[in-house]
Design brief:
alpha/beta, Rossmann fold, five-stranded parallel sheet, 19 helices
């Protein structure tokens, strides 16, 4: 539910506008002057501000400038008296999104509000894409296994069905989730992702559902959760198999009733969100041992897409290698090197337990170290033939810090391989917490 703050010193206008917009599904806040509006905005972070221009204590123009200094992406609609176009122009120069002249028709106001909020959603979506779209920006591959995945994406994208993505770490499950979103009727709405493994239970609950001011120590203002941010769009729940049983109950409720409450709140909020979940665990086995709720599993498992490991799509290796060579050569400002025959043979013979992300990391390293041609010596140690000898080899072309990181990465890859891609088991074998391993997987782009 989007939140609108109306600022006007005329009480009658506040009452009428509050009733009109609330009847159209918006959560309403009101203020009668600029200082009051600034305090409310800092505490509640509204999605839109509608303000009058002439008010005591602080003008609408000053309020706009103060709001834009703190909330750059917050849209602001200015209400001006009929015939004062110069005020509207000045307000637009100061950062207002739009203006509307008093008196106005209800439909005119509603259309102006809808346009401003749509602009805000697009800005938010673009920012999320810039923050989250790392590594490769599109799905690469034309193997039989990937063509089957594409077929499922096309069939499910146009529906509202919940999708469960399964497969090993590093296979590109988030890319599949994004492809489903961009091919769906929700494409112009937000795609919001959250990693259920990277946060503690308390933080994850707040991240998903948001919280009210004072809900816990440090909650100094109301905060929207990912469900609210994804309203109208798609919420991607990565590593959903690592979610605690108590949070699974709350997720199940949202899936069943499409309603939830913020942490520390009692207001029922409705949400229209398409869920795409992903896991590298066997959830059927997790259900059998009591680590995952059976009813939630069936809710998530409406359509399942199993993303194949790189070992099952080796015919995609040449196009993947070419894509990553070109990408990382461009990043360092050089022409793309060739890959010699021996290096390509090693790439084909390696098992790739870290899948596409391990391959990407290997090619990035090779591009940095290589000259005009990538040779076998430019590839990471674990890809070379004699694994035991390679494991003890001291790399001459790396600093001590880089060599230690290379060793850490290889140990993580080995642990993931031995754990069948289950991150929780790999973390236990390495003596790491799940959140610490999640950080390192992100650092080395392995999962």
């Amino acid at each position: 539910m989007e939140r609108i703050l109306i600022v006007d010193d005329e009480k009658n206008y506040l009452v009428v506008l509050q009733a009109l917009l609330a009847d159209n599904g918006y959560e309403m806040l009101t203020a009668q002057n600029g200082p009051q509006a600034l305090a409310l905005a800092a505490e509640e972070e509204p999605d839109l501000v509608i303000t009058d221009m002439r008010m005591p204590q602080m003008s609408g123009l000053d309020l706009i400038q103060r709001l834009k200094a703190r909330f750059n992406e917050m849209p602001i609609i200015v209400m001006t008296a009929y015939g004062t176009v110069e005020n509207a122009v000045e307000a637009m120069k100061s950062g207002a999104t739009d203006y509307i002249s008093k008196p106005f028709e209800n439909t005119e106001l509603l259309l102006t509000v809808q346009k401003a909020l749509k602009m805000r959603r697009l800005l938010f979506q673009n920012r999320l894409l810039k923050e989250e779209l790392k590594g490769y920006g599109e799905i690469i591959g034309d193997s039989k296994a990937m063509r089957q995945v594409y077929g499922l994406i096309d069939k499910v994208a146009a529906t509202r069905a919940t999708v469960l993505l399964t497969g090993e770490s590093g296979t590109g499950k988030e890319l599949i989730a994004r492809a489903i979103h961009t091919r769906s009727p929700r494409a112009e709405e937000p795609f919001v992702a959250v990693n259920c493994m990277a946060l503690t239970e308390t933080l994850l609950e707040s991240e998903l559902f948001g919280h009210e001011k004072g809900a816990f120590t440090g909650a100094t203002s109301r905060r929207k959760g990912r469900f609210e941010m994804a309203h109208g769009g798609t919420l991607f729940l990565d590593e959903v198999g690592e979610m605690s049983l108590s949070l699974q109950v709350k997720l199940l409720r949202v899936l069943q009733e499409r309603t939830f409450e913020r942490v520390g709140g009692n207001q029922q909020l409705s949400v229209d969100v398409r869920i795409v979940a992903a896991t590298n665990r066997d959830l059927t086995q997790a259900v059998e041992v009591g680590q995952f709720r059976e009813d939630l599993f069936y809710r998530l498992n409406v359509v399942r897409i199993n993303v194949p490991p790189l070992s099952q799509r080796r015919e995609d290796l040449p196009v993947l290698v070419a894509h990553f060579v070109k990408k990382y050569a461009a990043e360092v400002g050089r022409s793309a090197p060739q890959v010699d025959k021996q290096a390509m043979e090693l790439i084909y013979s390696h098992s790739w337990p870290g899948n596409v992300r391990e391959l990407e990391n290997a090619i990035e390293r090779a591009v940095i170290l290589a000259g005009d041609v990538i040779t076998s010596g430019d590839l990471p140690l674990e890809i070379r033939p004699d694994q035991e000898a390679a494991a003890t080899e001291l790399p001459r072309d790396l600093s001590l810090n880089d060599a230690l990181e290379d060793l850490e990465r290889r140990m993580i890859v080995r642990a993931l391989n031995e754990a069948g891609g289950v991150a929780a088991h790999a973390a236990e074998a390495l003596g790491l917490t799940k959140s610490n391993l999640a950080y390192k997987l992100k650092k080395y782009e392995l999962g």
